[in-house]
Amino acid sequence: MIVEMPVDKTMGMDSRLDDVWSRVVDHKVRIIGLYGTGGVGKTTLLKKLNNRFLKKTSHNFDVVIWVEVSKEVNSENIQETIRHKLDISDEIWKNKNEDERAAQITQEKICIIIRRSMGSARSIKTGSFLFGGSK
Is the pTM of this model over 0.85? Predict the structure, then answer.
């Protein structure tokens, strides 16, 4: 299930969206990072990317998950959000450590779109909450 994100009309962003989309559908690409100064359109681009999944059927994902990350990055909270959206039961989840939870999440064919709030004190350790090794 994909939830459509409200987004204003934009000019000149289609080529960037096409570029990011080509990476999304490339089976060799596992992580895509978008970064830049505030106000350049990162969130808008992510919303457009999310919404493209509603229109395009030529992707390999069963689920698209939008995750908002606050100033304090907490990989357990990120994993919890993803787990709930994947309907992974408490029984399966409760006795696993962070790396085992990451392994459980990556068994699914999912695209996770993470939007980190501005002013975050520390960055998200690239993919550690998904691929393990976060300690």
Answer: no
